[in-house]
Specification:
The chain is mostly helical. It folds into four domains: 240 residues, no CATH class; 252 residues, no CATH class; 33 residues; 40 residues, no CATH class. It contains 24 helices and two strands. The protein has a two-stranded antiparallel sheet.
């Protein structure tokens, strides 16, 4: 009862806070307001510790969405983790995680941004290793060490900002954007955002972080940890020059393409959803690199809704399938879990960009702006091919899990009677259906009219239908038959393993230092240094003590001989 009271209190408290923040966000949008607070915590002589807070429509709306999703995640956790003995610890970790994200959102100061950034990294490590087994330990270490690279980049940004006299970047982003120091800071910000938002080559930690409990994944992969890098890029977007934007566009589109390909070769339900998040992160960063920061923020908000709902539905299915995550064991779930199946399909359709759902208003606008903008043919093809891959793996998941016959044990019955989990999903489903249009009317009050030729206007529809058909074929005849040409030369394994990224940038980075450490230990610590050092000294002292012991335990004849020699020596010295 005590655990449930903590869950309920946290749920209501965060929900009320989220509505307040969303109200302020709408108010700030309507009146075009921005507040900047400075709180002098300590002032001693000429030294001062100042806490700065930036409150504008962007920070208020983002905080409202984070608090709303986290409140529903805590409500969902009350059912999903009802058998956990350490439920209080889990809830406190989630609350600390949300507090770190809010500190990052409202901070215009690099020091407090680093505090929120490091708080996210540390608490995400604690949440990933929550189940205390070898796979979660490995995933937690991979997540933590990948994010350390971004922390070092932020520390270097703080060091470079000593040239400006203040760590509040909001003061001089505009008029210092052409300087050499600000260019270095821009590259470091891009590096930090690439690690946190899992862009190539730092992508391997994001599917591994699925070792955390599913409610944590719903929070981490939708609106908090992975979006922190995109949010930082949005705040610093005026600093990036043409070279940085081209580099960011290339990396993000490749990430989107790689994640879409990997999800089509994956059978683990949670990893498919994680790779869908990675694909959408690439979409956000790519449209930001084209210069549309508000549109990237809009897609960040809509993606947070349907991604969290997708994770919740996946968690409900995994929970009822006794922790089985293989989609080949599913099938016909729509007959046994109709409400979960409805929520899953709504979030899947929103991910694909189905008209009048949340994802449509942002994804369709992004693709039309790409069609209208000056991008080369390679980026154009990757954009639309990745969109087709998104529809493909979404429909493949739909056909595998909800259609056909049930492939688990016979007479196995599933149910969705836990009202905590159901209410969490229904609250998000309502937002997925209605919030996309509302946010588009608020963020873009002036209607954006994009006039394209007919074949370009129909290109998005054609690519989507083509992706849905390929997803159906992959379900009907099996993935190995469809991609038979890729089976040769290991192409199938290459495409399904995130382009060998976990092996190159995880095991590959750590293999040589570990091998050198092993050789050094074997040759020095366990070899020559032991022979001439501790073990050698021990062996010499042992032999000397054995000689001394033999000497002490010997016969009287030896002592008489020794006395005789000493007497001769003394007489010789005296004479």
């Amino acid at each position: 009862m005590k655990v449930m009271s903590i869950c309920n209190f946290s749920f209501f408290f965060l929900m009320i806070l989220s509505f307040i923040m969303l109200f302020f966000g709408f108010f700030f949008v309507f009146n075009d307001l921005l507040f900047f607070f400075e709180w002098f915590i300590v002032v001693f002589n000429s030294s001062s510790i100042v806490m700065t807070i930036l409150v504008d429509w962007m920070s208020c709306m983002f905080m409202g969405f984070v608090l709303f999703i986290s409140s529903l995640v805590i409500k969902y956790s009350a059912g999903y983790m009802s058998g956990d003995l350490n439920m209080n610890r889990f809830i406190f970790l989630v609350l600390l995680f949300v507090m770190s994200m809010i500190l990052l959102i409202i901070s215009p100061n690099m020091i407090s941004i680093l505090l929120g950034w490091d708080g996210l990294g540390l608490i995400s490590y604690c949440l990933v290793i929550y189940y205390q087994n070898i796979s979660s330990f490995n995933a937690g270490m991979l997540t933590a060490l990948s994010n350390r690279v971004g922390d070092v980049a932020l520390l270097m940004v703080i060091a470079w900002m000593l040239n400006f006299g203040s760590w509040s970047y909001i003061f001089y982003l505009d008029f210092m954007s052409g300087g050499f120091e600000m260019m270095i800071i821009g590259f470091l910000i891009i590096l930090a955002a690439m690690t946190k938002s899992a862009q190539i080559p730092f992508s391997s930690w994001l599917p591994a972080a699925m070792a955390a409990p599913t409610p944590v994944s719903a929070l981490v992969h939708s609106s908090t940890l992975v979006t922190a890098g995109v949010y930082l890029l949005i705040r610093f977007n005026v600093v990036f020059n043409e070279l940085m934007c081209d580099f960011l566009l290339f990396i993000s589109v490749l990430t989107m393409f790689m994640a879409g390909l990997g999800a089509n070769f994956e059978y683990d339900l949670s990893k498919i959803v994680a790779l869908s998040t990675l694909s959408q992160l690439g979409l956000m960063v790519s449209i930001l690199s084209l210069g549309f920061a508000s549109l990237a923020f809009f897609h960040l908000l809509t993606h947070a809704l349907f991604s969290a709902l997708l994770f919740m539905c996946a968690g409900m299915m995994i929970h009822n399938l006794k922790d089985s995550q293989d989609i080949r064991f599913m099938g016909g779930i729509s007959f046994q879990m109709p409400l979960t199946s409805s929520c899953l399909m709504i979030s899947n359709f929103a991910l694909c960009g189905m008209p009048f759902l949340a994802g449509f208003y942002s994804k369709d606008l992004i693709l039309e702006i790409v069609l209208m903008n000056y991008v080369n043919f390679f980026m154009f093809v990757l954009f639309f091919f990745s969109t087709g891959l998104t529809v493909c793996y979404s429909f493949r998941l739909f056909f595998y899990s909800l259609c056909g016959d049930f492939n688990m044990n016979s007479f196995y019955v599933m149910w969705e009677t836990d009202m905590n989990m159901v209410s969490g999903m229904l609250g998000l489903m309502f937002m997925v259906v209605f919030m996309g249009s509302l946010m588009s009317w608020l963020i873009f009050p002036v209607p954006m009219l994009i006039i394209l030729p007919l074949f370009l206007s129909l290109l998005v529809l054609f690519v989507s239908f083509l992706g849905a058909w390929v997803g159906y074929e992959m379900f009907k005849v099996g993935v190995n038959t469809v991609v038979l040409p890729f089976k040769y030369f290991g192409f199938s394994y290459f495409l399904g393993s995130m382009w060998y990224m976990p092996y190159i940038f995880t095991y590959g980075v750590s293999f040589i230092p570990l091998l050198v450490g092993y050789k050094c230990y074997k040759m020095y610590d366990g070899g020559w240094s032991e022979y001439f050092g501790g073990q050698g000294l021990f062996y010499v002292l042992l032999k000397l003590s054995e000689i001394n012991q033999w000497w002490q335990f010997n016969s009287l004849k030896l002592f008489l001989m020794l006395f005789f020699f000493w007497l001769i020596l003394i007489m010789y010295l005296v004479i």
